[in-house]
Design goal:
The chain is an alpha+beta fold and 318 residues long. It has 3 domains: 70 residues, Membrane-bound Lytic Murein Transglycosylase D, Chain A (Roll); 132 residues, no CATH class; 80 residues, no CATH class. The chain contains 9 helices and 13 strands. Strands 7-6-5-4-3-13-12-11-10-9-8 form an 11-stranded antiparallel beta sheet. The longest helix is centred in the middle third of the chain and has 14 residues.
Length: 318
């Protein structure tokens, strides 16, 4: 038996976590079985009083019961990935902001993303991905050129493994075959030297598969939708890695209790967070039957050279 002096802010849950007791209900049970009658815990812990703790052998006995709340099936969902026949559209909203010396600059834009399952090929899934109905806050000529250039390449091919993780992206054979005509048409729409320079760089990316693949994989929709968030749960938690703004994030997610028979609700945070480290939080709704995302809201922030940056990103099935 061990003795712990209760501190302000102590709870049965955080004390149980420190001594690796999975179900905190046994902490109260053990104490009340061994303490004096006047020291029994009724509702809350009282700072300054003693709390009797089970030894390691007793903790193992309790843990072997395997009845901790976080081990319930509802908090350890199996997220399938069965996209066959999937064909949906999503409203995407992004807000980027930066703050330097109290001055905030924001940029907002949105678009409609279409995702269509095409076929299963050597155990991998092929999707067609397009964007449309762009709404830009600044609406500059170069932004319009960038949008029209990308629209000329759609649909983009996205290959995904059986676990729902993105493998590679590419351009259809038809687009590649007609690219010279596509480029000429864009030059007709944007007849100036800056557009010509941009389209030369655009052509380099399009005609170099590895470079194109790297660029497309930076898309926030694809990175979130086809990340490894479907990794298995254990003891109420699941872990996966994801790159955002070229930074590798170690993400921890938990499932939320819900009465829905059709959806799984997930909450995502960084696995560990230290002072001045990047921050990430996300809330995701997933269809139980196929493991496809219905909606997602995420916030990613970081600080660089005394400037704070933040990106708010949302996906909504429409």
């Amino acid at each position: 038996m061990m003795i712990h002096f209760i501190l302000p802010g102590d709870t049965l849950e955080n004390i149980a976590e420190k001594i690796r007791l999975e179900n905190p209900v046994y902490l109260k049970e053990f104490h009340n079985q061994h303490c004096l009658k006047e020291d029994r815990i009724v509702d809350h812990l009282v700072p300054g009083k003693k709390l009797l703790l089970p030894d390691f052998a007793k903790i193992k006995v309790y843990n072997d019961k395997n009845d901790a709340p976080f081990k319930s099936q509802e908090l350890n969902p199996k997220i399938a990935f069965d996209p066959i026949g999937f064909d949906e559209k999503f409203k995407i909203k992004i807000k980027e902001s930066s703050n330097a010396e109290g001055k905030t600059v924001e940029n907002r834009f949105s678009y409609i993303a279409s995702l269509q399952w095409i076929k299963n090929e050597f155990d991998d899934h092929l999707f067609h991905f397009t964007k449309d109905q762009f709404s830009n806050q600044n609406n500059t000529k170069m932004e319009s050129l960038a949008i029209e250039s990308m629209k000329s390449l759609y649909p983009i091919e996205v290959f995904v493994n059986p676990k729902g993780q993105i493998l590679r992206t590419g351009i259809t054979r038809e687009v590649l075959k007609n690219f010279n005509q596509i480029k000429a048409k864009l030059l007709d729409f944007f007849p100036d030297k800056y557009a010509k320079i941009y389209l030369e760089e655009f052509e380099y990316v399009v005609l170099n598969p590895d470079v194109f693949d790297q660029k497309i994989k930076e898309d926030w929709f694809l990175k979130n939708y086809f990340s490894s968030f479907r990794n298995p749960f254990e003891n109420g938690k699941s872990f996966f890695e994801m790159y955002l703004d070229k930074t590798l994030l170690n993400v921890q997610q938990t499932a939320k209790l819900t009465d829905s028979k059709e959806e799984i609700l997930l909450h995502q945070t960084l696995k560990s967070k230290e002072e001045n480290q990047d921050d990430f939080t996300g809330n995701v709704t997933v269809f139980k039957d196929n493991g496809m995302i219905e909606s997602l809201n995420a916030v990613y922030s970081y600080k660089e050279f005394s400037v704070s940056y933040s990106t708010e990103f949302s996906i909504e099935n429409i």
